[in-house]
Amino acid sequence: MAFYINMRKTNVDNKAPMELFSDCSLIFEDGKPTLSCSLFESMRVDIDLTCSICLDTVFDAVSLYCGHIFCYMCCCKAASVIIVNGLEVASLEKKCPLCRREGVYPGAVHLEELNILLSESCPEEWEERRQLERLERIRQAKEHWDFQCRAFVGI
Protein backbone atom coordinates (compact mmCIF):
# COMPACT_ATOMS: atom_id res chain seq x y z
CA MET A 1 0.00 0.00 0.00
CA ALA A 2 2.84 2.40 0.83
CA PHE A 3 4.30 1.72 -2.61
CA TYR A 4 1.08 2.78 -4.33
CA ILE A 5 0.71 5.88 -2.18
CA ASN A 6 4.29 6.84 -3.09
CA MET A 7 3.60 6.14 -6.78
CA ARG A 8 0.59 8.46 -6.76
CA LYS A 9 2.92 11.31 -5.86
CA THR A 10 5.07 10.73 -8.95
CA ASN A 11 4.37 11.37 -12.61
CA VAL A 12 3.72 7.83 -13.78
CA ASP A 13 2.12 7.51 -17.21
CA ASN A 14 0.31 4.23 -16.60
CA LYS A 15 -1.76 4.53 -13.44
CA ALA A 16 -4.08 1.62 -14.28
CA PRO A 17 -2.45 -0.88 -11.87
CA MET A 18 -2.85 1.65 -9.06
CA GLU A 19 -6.64 1.82 -9.34
CA LEU A 20 -6.99 -1.11 -6.94
CA PHE A 21 -5.33 1.00 -4.25
CA SER A 22 -6.90 4.33 -5.20
CA ASP A 23 -8.47 4.72 -1.75
CA CYS A 24 -5.24 4.17 0.20
CA SER A 25 -3.93 6.89 2.46
CA LEU A 26 -1.69 7.64 5.39
CA ILE A 27 -3.75 9.09 8.22
CA PHE A 28 -2.44 10.81 11.35
CA GLU A 29 -5.06 10.71 14.08
CA ASP A 30 -4.02 12.06 17.49
CA GLY A 31 -0.42 11.94 16.26
CA LYS A 32 -0.62 8.20 15.54
CA PRO A 33 -0.11 7.08 11.95
CA THR A 34 -2.35 4.56 10.24
CA LEU A 35 -2.10 3.17 6.74
CA SER A 36 -5.70 2.90 5.56
CA CYS A 37 -7.10 1.30 2.43
CA SER A 38 -10.52 0.29 1.13
CA LEU A 39 -10.54 -2.82 -1.00
CA PHE A 40 -13.38 -3.73 -3.34
CA GLU A 41 -15.73 -1.20 -1.69
CA SER A 42 -16.63 -3.74 0.99
CA MET A 43 -13.51 -4.20 3.04
CA ARG A 44 -11.31 -1.69 4.83
CA VAL A 45 -7.78 -2.45 6.02
CA ASP A 46 -6.20 -0.22 8.67
CA ILE A 47 -2.59 -0.87 9.64
CA ASP A 48 -1.40 0.84 12.81
CA LEU A 49 2.10 2.22 12.27
CA THR A 50 2.90 2.62 15.94
CA CYS A 51 5.67 0.34 17.18
CA SER A 52 4.29 -1.78 20.02
CA ILE A 53 7.69 -1.81 21.71
CA CYS A 54 8.71 1.87 21.83
CA LEU A 55 5.14 3.20 21.31
CA ASP A 56 6.38 5.68 18.70
CA THR A 57 5.87 5.81 14.93
CA VAL A 58 7.78 2.91 13.35
CA PHE A 59 11.23 3.98 12.20
CA ASP A 60 13.30 1.92 9.78
CA ALA A 61 10.26 -0.35 9.72
CA VAL A 62 10.54 -4.12 9.43
CA SER A 63 7.83 -6.72 9.15
CA LEU A 64 8.48 -9.96 10.96
CA TYR A 65 7.62 -13.31 9.41
CA CYS A 66 4.35 -13.26 11.38
CA GLY A 67 3.39 -9.92 9.77
CA HIS A 68 3.79 -7.61 12.76
CA ILE A 69 5.57 -4.32 12.10
CA PHE A 70 8.19 -2.81 14.41
CA CYS A 71 11.16 -0.44 14.35
CA TYR A 72 14.37 -2.20 13.31
CA MET A 73 16.18 -1.25 16.52
CA CYS A 74 13.24 -2.38 18.64
CA CYS A 75 13.27 -5.74 16.83
CA CYS A 76 16.98 -6.12 17.47
CA LYS A 77 16.43 -5.47 21.18
CA ALA A 78 13.50 -7.90 21.34
CA ALA A 79 15.54 -10.56 19.53
CA SER A 80 18.57 -9.91 21.78
CA VAL A 81 20.88 -9.22 18.85
CA ILE A 82 23.06 -6.21 18.21
CA ILE A 83 22.39 -4.01 15.22
CA VAL A 84 25.77 -4.82 13.67
CA ASN A 85 24.82 -8.51 13.38
CA GLY A 86 21.20 -7.90 12.35
CA LEU A 87 18.03 -9.92 12.73
CA GLU A 88 19.29 -12.75 10.51
CA VAL A 89 21.37 -14.09 13.41
CA ALA A 90 18.49 -14.09 15.90
CA SER A 91 17.80 -17.35 17.67
CA LEU A 92 14.83 -19.33 16.36
CA GLU A 93 13.56 -19.55 19.95
CA LYS A 94 13.07 -15.78 20.13
CA LYS A 95 9.40 -14.83 19.90
CA CYS A 96 7.43 -11.99 18.37
CA PRO A 97 6.58 -9.51 21.16
CA LEU A 98 2.92 -9.47 20.08
CA CYS A 99 1.84 -12.94 18.98
CA ARG A 100 4.65 -14.91 20.73
CA ARG A 101 5.36 -16.93 17.58
CA GLU A 102 8.89 -18.36 17.45
CA GLY A 103 11.41 -18.04 14.62
CA VAL A 104 10.03 -14.82 13.13
CA TYR A 105 13.19 -12.68 13.14
CA PRO A 106 15.39 -14.32 10.47
CA GLY A 107 12.64 -13.78 7.87
CA ALA A 108 12.14 -10.08 8.68
CA VAL A 109 11.64 -7.76 5.70
CA HIS A 110 12.68 -4.09 5.60
CA LEU A 111 9.71 -1.98 4.52
CA GLU A 112 11.56 0.59 2.42
CA GLU A 113 8.45 2.04 0.74
CA LEU A 114 6.85 2.59 4.13
CA ASN A 115 10.02 4.28 5.36
CA ILE A 116 9.97 6.60 2.33
CA LEU A 117 6.29 7.41 2.85
CA LEU A 118 6.75 8.23 6.53
CA SER A 119 9.91 10.26 5.96
CA GLU A 120 8.14 12.41 3.36
CA SER A 121 4.94 12.74 5.40
CA CYS A 122 6.58 13.98 8.59
CA PRO A 123 10.10 15.16 7.66
CA GLU A 124 10.92 17.06 10.88
CA GLU A 125 10.04 14.18 13.19
CA TRP A 126 11.75 11.71 10.85
CA GLU A 127 15.00 13.70 10.81
CA GLU A 128 14.98 14.04 14.60
CA ARG A 129 14.46 10.31 15.01
CA ARG A 130 17.11 9.57 12.37
CA GLN A 131 19.67 11.55 14.35
CA LEU A 132 18.81 9.73 17.60
CA GLU A 133 18.92 6.32 15.92
CA ARG A 134 22.22 7.17 14.25
CA LEU A 135 23.83 7.97 17.62
CA GLU A 136 22.57 4.70 19.10
CA ARG A 137 23.80 2.69 16.11
CA ILE A 138 27.23 4.31 16.34
CA ARG A 139 27.37 3.57 20.07
CA GLN A 140 26.43 -0.08 19.55
CA ALA A 141 28.87 -0.48 16.65
CA LYS A 142 31.68 1.03 18.73
CA GLU A 143 30.93 -1.31 21.65
CA HIS A 144 30.81 -4.29 19.31
CA TRP A 145 34.11 -3.55 17.60
CA ASP A 146 35.82 -2.63 20.88
CA PHE A 147 34.79 -6.03 22.22
CA GLN A 148 35.93 -7.78 19.04
CA CYS A 149 39.34 -6.08 19.21
CA ARG A 150 39.78 -6.99 22.90
CA ALA A 151 38.78 -10.57 22.18
CA PHE A 152 41.23 -10.76 19.27
CA VAL A 153 44.10 -9.36 21.33
CA GLY A 154 43.15 -11.54 24.29
CA ILE A 155 42.41 -8.81 26.81
From TrEMBL:
Keywords assigned by UniProt, alphabetized: Metal-binding, Zinc, Zinc-finger
Domain RING-type: 51-100
A GO molecular function held by the record: zinc ion binding
Source superkingdom: Eukaryota
UniProt-listed InterPro entries: BAH1 (IPR033326), Znf_C3HC4_RING-type (IPR018957), Znf_RING (IPR001841), Znf_RING/FYVE/PHD (IPR013083)
Designated name of the protein: RING-type domain-containing protein
Protein source organism: Rhynchospora pubera
